[in-house]
Amino acid sequence: MRGQRWRAHAAAVLQGRRATLNEATLRRTELYSEELGIDLAANTDPELFKWFLASVLLGARISETLAKRTYRTFERHRLLTPERILSAGWQHLVDPIMREGGYVRYDGKTSNEILRNCEMLIAEYGGSLKRVHALARNSRDLEARLDRFFGVGPITVNIFLRELRARWSKADPEPLPGVKALARKLHIDLRHYPRKSMAFTRLEAGLIRQRKTVARALTRREDRRHRNATMR
């Protein structure tokens, strides 16, 4: 019975989202890189490294809000190149960078991973993410090369590459299962859009943002249901 009530709550939330969302709205979604002021259209190594750094932070097990705040702390301290980050060193990354960003649970571990990634990027690719793409044989090889960086797994690779679909010929990650599932629930057929188009990129970003909104709405409904039950 409880499972049935939960599914009913979920259906009601999704129905409400359908009433306020449509594909045209989702296709206008602001990309995460745009929100952070990163110009991926320029396709330059400085902008690409900013997005790689942001992707590493967004892919970690912390909230999206803290990840964005931490990236902006890197930006405020002008630590947006591998060379400057290496010059700053581990202690400076832990405090003040991670501390100011609120990224405290994995501050030492993530700081170490970021430093090692900067070293690896310089040693193997001359500090150039464009070279990572150029040397990759195909999209799968590109994903494998990125996955070799420290602390970078499939989620971080997906975050980094999905906003580069229309910019890099070999950037074509499979949409996340949760994105596909929400698209089906919202009656959106992703096959109607070329995956290398900006329309698909923005639609995908919109679904990712809405997936989190729906999840939060479901959590709030369950919390209210629990509080009401305990007050009886």
The count of β-strands is 0
Could you tell me the mean pLDDT? Answer: 88
Question: First CA to last CA: what distance?
Answer: 18 Å
| Share of helix, binned | 55-70%
List keywords for this structure.
globular, 13 helices, mainly alpha, 232 residues, Endonuclease III, domain 1, 2 domains
Overview of the molecule:
The protein has 232 residues and is mainly α. It folds into two domains: 1-31 and 175-232, no CATH class; 34-162, Hypothetical protein, domain 2 (Endonuclease III, domain 1). It is 69% helix and 0% strand. It has 13 helices and no strands. It has helices spanning 2-20, 23-26, 32-35, 45-58, 64-76, 82-88, 90-101, 107-125, 129-135, 139-147, 154-162, 177-185, 198-231. α4 (45-58) packs antiparallel against α5, α6 (82-88) crosses α8 and α7 packs across α8 (107-125). The two termini are 18 Å apart.
Can you lay out the helices and strands and say which pair or pack?
Blueprint: H1 2-20, H2 23-26, H3 32-35, H4 45-58, H5 64-76, H6 82-88, H7 90-101, H8 107-125, H9 129-135, H10 139-147, H11 154-162, H12 177-185, H13 198-231
